[in-house]
Write a structure and sequence with these properties.
Two copies of one chain form a homodimer.
Chain A: E1 4-6, E2 11-14, H1 22-27, E3 32-36, H2 41-44, H3 47-57, E4 61-65, H4 74-87, E5 91-96, H5 98-110, H6 117-121, E6 133-137, E7 149-154, E8 159-164, E9 172-175, H7 185-203, H8 211-233, H9 238-252, H10 266-277, H11 281-296, H12 302-313, H13 321-339, H14 356-366, E10 371-372, E11 376-377, H15 379-388
Parallel strand pairs in A: 2-9, 3-4, 3-5, 5-6, 6-9
Antiparallel strand pairs in A: 7-8, 10-11
Helix pairs in contact in A: 4-5, 7-8, 7-9, 7-11, 8-9, 8-12, 10-11, 10-14, 11-13, 11-15, 12-13, 14-15
């Protein structure tokens, strides 16, 4: 196990009845709030009105940053910084899924820097302090509610890149599983695929002795596999929604990667798909992951993939470990396709072969020449994985 | 799943090379340190000298509270408070296992209250603030390095009771698995049994829908079962020591009990054994747990115990679920007895039948009349479990 520091101080307020604590939690940090949200679903659900009422009853001044996109764009961060500065705000309440929270983190750091927010994402500038952030999560997927990072899209440069800073870890996050009752089957499936992908990116590593972390990762994968189909069939099943929501936080808050080197593989490949075609991130991850695992299956990785099959899908171990590993991959593919009803080819989400080469080149370039994950992937490797996913 | 708040902000510095950060971490909080430790093993190992050198090089003033007992006694807390007040200290560095850290937490809270420290333990006084604490862990067992509670013994009243306060959560903990290389086989086994007991106290609950938490608990149990015997046979096996050490923190830091009601059962019974006979806590837990599970096995609990056997020990599920559950219990007993070489009867640790009645009465009384765990245990139930353990 490698040396590591684990320091995740986000206070999680989980359950049906936590909004009563919202004003008190905000007032630990500030009283002039930027309320950031997305396309208005929080207005339809009544959550927006509930928040505004709490603000008014508690003399909390607020301004709004609305319309944050599903793949959040740097323009929204520029607008957020402008609103913060013009109104001398001291706290950000991000209400939404990962995109809203990710974007809010960039705003929280950018407001203290005399540069364009995009400079932070491309590492021209570094966050040295940030406004405190609280979140109210409306979609279980990215884990942004309990981690310090985010992913931002720049449509002009066709880039979708990750950034992070310890200063942008949320101070608190309110997780009410009931809020996710209105998430439709497609986005529930995409969220579960995203949680599973985070878990697998942390799980698929070689010979690092992080046994406990891998057993915990398997527990999270089993949770997603058990409750994903239930949440799709019964959107108001509290047990399913609560398990998926809590899993979203632990898949990516850092516990699963403690003691390991976990440079990710599938996310950098998927980011090009959604940067070029604006597809749903979780769907892209589901499509690519089984093809990625098939592509990297070799003498070095076979035990790792076989363990995944045995411990997560109950594959019966046989003499033929390659066959066991292939069964593991087939189980994963089948789970996404049949149990979660995810379109499992790029063609079904509107991606043909025209830009595969360009995307593969970009994926390699954005990872510094090649993706250095559990197995190094150069441009041609990435292209093969894209082609296998058509 | 029940509503909950999870807020574990302890910064964990894990690995071989973290002492370099000690002075910086302390100076985030203070510069006049109470150095608390136990019986002097840290002097034999060289850790004491290393710490003093760091203090001297960084102009950190310090006073010592030494000789804290394995079942820490309230007298030590009184002494600690006196040293703190006389020297105007502003930080406590607890170097040791759970007993040293537990005692230090009581001192940290008691110094701000005008009462005897024991009043806190018996809930006559309440901690409202506390001095900041850092820890250097030398034994993987109690999880005190990442939780807010402690257990204190009062020899005069023959009481061993738990207390806790959010203010006494350690600010940071340094976990170096190499420090535990010198822990002998007996105490390694007792530590692993303690970690497993914490996990099982959180795991054995009924119908709460906390599926993910139970899968994570199984991951921690599998980690203990896998590495416990390795750490005993190869005390300098870093992989084994690091997995056990990291497991110790997660067994009890609150994650496994999120969303559940988890009043504990075996700990209150064991606390009387070590209050009356001063036996090693983890050994007492190992002896009692299989007898406890056998005693509570019934139509309500059979699925829970069977799941434990299937998911942790790989018991093949059969038509006869009671038999499967009995196999689970037998596997646990066999693991402690044969793989961990733990004496599995009270007789072997010097406890005969003379005080069983008195201890059973005390265990019930200290839990408010009866132990309200997964199954309620009255005095007579506790007595039966003690008798079955003779």
């Amino acid at each position: 196990m490698r040396d590591f520091i684990f320091n995740v101080s986000t206070k999680i307020l989980f359950g049906r009845d936590q909004m009563k604590n919202l004003a008190k939690e905000i007032k630990n940090y500030g009283s002039r709030v930027l309320l950031s949200y997305g396309g208005g679903s929080i207005k339809r659900s009544g959550l927006y009105d509930e928040i505004i009422k709490i603000f008014e009853e508690n003399n909390i001044f607020y301004k709004e940053l609305s319309g944050i996109e599903p793949n959040p764009r740097v323009e929204s961060a520029r607008e957020g910084v402008k609103i913060l500065k013009e109104n001398d705000l001291d706290f950000i309440l991000a209400v939404g899924g990962g995109s809203v929270i990710d974007l809010s983190k960039l705003v929280a750091g950018a407001v203290f820097l005399d540069c364009d927010p995009w400079d932070i994402v491309i590492r021209k500038a570094k966050i040295e302090k940030a406004l405190p952030i609280g979140t109210i999560l409306t979609l279980a997927a990215t884990g942004s509610e309990m981690d310090a990072g985010g992913v931002i899209t720049n449509p002009e440069t066709k880039q979708k890149l990750a950034f992070g800073s310890p200063y942008t870890l949320p101070k608190f996050s309110i997780l009410n599983p009931e809020i996710t009752y209105t998430v439709n089957a497609k986005h529930t499936a995409a969220g579960v695929a995203d949680i599973m992908s985070h878990t697998m990116e942390n799980y698929f590593t070689l010979k690092d002795g992080a046994y406990m972390q891998n057993r915990l990762a398997e527990g999270i994968l089993k949770t997603c596999i058990h409750y994903g189909p239930i949440a799709m069939a019964e959107p108001e099943n509290y047990e399913a929604r609560s398990n998926i929501m809590w899993a979203s936080s632990w898949a990516i808050n850092g516990l699963l990667s403690t003691g390991k080197a976990t440079p990710w593989s599938v996310h950098p490949m998927e980011h090009e798909l959604s940067a070029f075609y604006d597809i749903t991130h979780g769907i892209g991850l589901a499509i690519l992951t089984p093809r990625f695992l098939s592509y990297i299956l070799n003498e070095d990785t076979v035990d790792m993939i076989r363990d995944f099959g045995v411990n997560v899908f109950g594959v019966e171990p046989s003499e033929d470990k390659f066959n066991d590993a292939k069964k593991a991959i087939a189980n994963l593919h089948k789970f996404f396709e049949q149990d979660m009803n995810i379109p499992m080819t790029l063609g079904e989400v509107g991606i043909d072969d025209k830009k595969l080469e360009e995307m593969a080149e970009a994926a390699a370039r954005h990872s510094g020449g090649s993706i250095k994950g559990v197995v190094e992937l150069k441009k041609d490797d990435i292209l093969e994985i894209y082609k296998a996913s058509l």
